[in-house]
């Protein structure tokens, strides 16, 4: 019995080291690990707050406000920091003298010091959370949870604003997304069918 327990502990230790090694390999392929972390951080925290917030608070208002704050932090970070550093893209709007809004898109990739993994993390982190929020929205609609639907609509609005802005920055956005997703799928050890499904979903969703 003792031998069995030792064997089980050894397997668990090997699995843990394997996961840490894989995570280390992925991080080693990033030229901008800190921006990549914050590119995913606020999105993940917002989703966790939405999913598990009721475990810690019975107040919908508290959960709603915290989620919106996290989503706002994410929107600002992606729009002003991670897009410029990780993929060399920027978008912004300016108000003209006549009161109309002019949208501007900029791509500066000639001297971009990013790897394909940086690009993949950026695009996957941009698109995948929006898909998750969309699925949550469908669930809330079927449950007639219109209060939660308002939160999801806010998340989708902020997500799609960044997605549309960055996709319009590049005419070859499809090839960049495909390359980045392929890099992540390879490094994470996923099979090819998963990579094709992610790429197809991105192209279908945003008309790339």
From TrEMBL:
Signal sequence residues: none
Domain of life from the UniProt record: Eukaryota
Keywords from the UniProt entry: Membrane, Transmembrane, Transmembrane helix
Membrane topology: Multi-pass membrane protein
Annotated GO biological process: protein secretion; vesicle-mediated transport
Pfam family, one: DUF846
Compartments it resides in: Membrane
Main subcellular localisation: membrane
Gene Ontology cellular component list: Golgi membrane
Transmembrane segments: 47-76, 121-142, 148-167
PANTHER family: GOLGI APPARATUS MEMBRANE PROTEIN TVP23
Family statement drawn from the similarity comment of this UniProt entry: Belongs to the TVP23 family.
Protein's UniProt name: Golgi apparatus membrane protein TVP23 homolog
């Amino acid at each position: 019995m003792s031998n069995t327990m030792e064997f089980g502990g050894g397997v668990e230790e090997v699995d843990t080291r394997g996961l840490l090694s894989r995570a280390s390999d992925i991080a080693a392929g990033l030229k901008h690990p800190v921006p990549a972390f914050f590119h995913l951080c606020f999105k993940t925290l917002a989703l966790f707050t939405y999913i598990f917030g009721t475990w810690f608070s019975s107040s919908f208002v508290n959960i709603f406000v915290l989620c919106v704050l996290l989503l706002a932090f994410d929107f600002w970070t992606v729009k002003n920091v991670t897009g410029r550093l990780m993929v060399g893209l920027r978008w912004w709007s300016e108000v003209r003298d006549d009161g109309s809004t002019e949208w501007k898109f900029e791509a500066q990739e000639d001297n971009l010091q990013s790897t394909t993994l940086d690009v993949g993390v950026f695009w996957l982190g941009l698109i995948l959370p929006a898909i998750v929020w969309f699925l949550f929205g469908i669930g809330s609609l079927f449950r007639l949870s219109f209060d939660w639907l308002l939160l999801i609509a806010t998340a989708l609005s902020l997500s799609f604003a960044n997605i549309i802005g960055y996709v319009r920055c590049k005419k070859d956005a499809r090839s960049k997304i495909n390359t980045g997703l392929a890099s992540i799928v390879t490094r994470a050890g996923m099979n090819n069918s998963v990579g094709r499904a992610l790429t197809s979903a991105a192209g279908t969703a945003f008309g790339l």
